[in-house]
Amino acid sequence: MPASLLLLALFWSALPVAATTTVIELEIDGAIGVATADYISSGIDHAEDVGAELVIIKIDTPGGLMKPTREIVQRILAASVPVAAYVTPAGARADSAGTYILLSCHVAAMTPTSHLGAATPVPLMNAAPPSEDDGDGDGDGEQSGSAADRKVMNDAVSYIRSLAERHGRNADWAETAVTEAATLTATEALEQGVIEFIAADRDELLTQVDGFDVEIDGQSRPLSTSDVDIEAFEANWRIRLLTVISNPEIVLLLGLIGLYGLMYEGWNPGAIVPGVVGAICLLLAAYALQVLPVNYAGLALILVGVALMVAEAYAPSFGALGLGGIVAFVFGSVIMFDTGVPGFGISYVFVTGLGLVFAILLIWLIGFLLKLRRRGAVSGRESIVGATATAMEDFATTGKVWLEGEAWHARSQEPVTKDEELVVTRLDGLTLDVERAAAPTSPKHQ
Fold first, then answer.
1. Whether 114 contacts 91, CB under 8 Å
2. 3-state class (DSSP) for residue 83
3. pTM beyond 0.85
4. What is the C-alpha to C-alpha distance for residues 164 and 434, in angstroms, rounded to an integer?
5. Which of 215, 237, 259 is the last residue of a domain?
6. What is the pLDDT of residues 423-441, one digit of tens each?
């Protein structure tokens, strides 16, 4: 009996074990930037390493920067693993850059009540639309707008058409998404051949795409998603850090902390910590500005505002310099990030609140400086002469007095009793010349 059990165990172990099928899940939530491109690329790399059956990119984005979008599209097109774009949850959108990414994927799906489109390049949103005739009657068909605008428009049209045509989707509608900022609901997108599936959730999507043919490396192959393990790919610490510092409001705070940290180190040499923290924050802000759409006129205004607020501390103007600095700072902050790129604007409430904080600090600073002026010297020879000391013993000409927490040698022209208050009239080396604080008044004679 034991021998038969052993043979059965050996036979069972020799049977082939079914490999676990894995689906990697990625997510684009918010504006598309450099960190997004890094995250998507890392996720697809991971899917290829583990031999995943499918990569699902959940999308809910207002759009973003074109360069990171092109990097994401290029990585999807070069992937050896099928990639599905899924606009979710309900009410989500794949606007602008999100539309390009969706059209580049092997499978395009949406949740009911979601939408996509509005893929016009941002610099052209407020430009005049191209016309068929320039109005001179010669019928040459010259388009309105600058040559640069036409180049950007034509490039975007050809780019989005090529992505749609690659997977047999409606390229004509894709063109209108660029030229007319057209949008579609999930139902309309399915009817017009822009997407392949509408699914209420991920499980329904996996059921629908099971057996769906996709083209990878020029070869068609069916997807097998009936029994899969889902692995949500998480961004590493570097990508998370890049995501945080790419927020315009965080960039603004980092820049201010960096500037004031370095200035405080300059005011108090040897403090070390403010200088180190300031240098790190300033470098992080400088890096973030390289990957964000920035109007440098706004940045110049911010620097002018900070300079004026610092000048108020050195040359008090009873608020004139400081208030001018606050105004320059607020307007500069708004202008610097007012580029029109979706997801990369700055909150007016945040900027206004930051300006009010600076105003409060400025008022406190002015009050503190005025108090220091009234107070006079608090250290050195000027603070000692005229100060009040207390006699530590009885003495006729020389003895010891207590002043500012220290015992001093003192000289007096008249006898002094212990605990008597004395006024310092002169400092001679380490010896104080003192006299009584108040001479005794003689009684009045009737």
1. yes
2. strand
3. no
4. 95
5. 237
6. 888 887 778 888 887 655 4
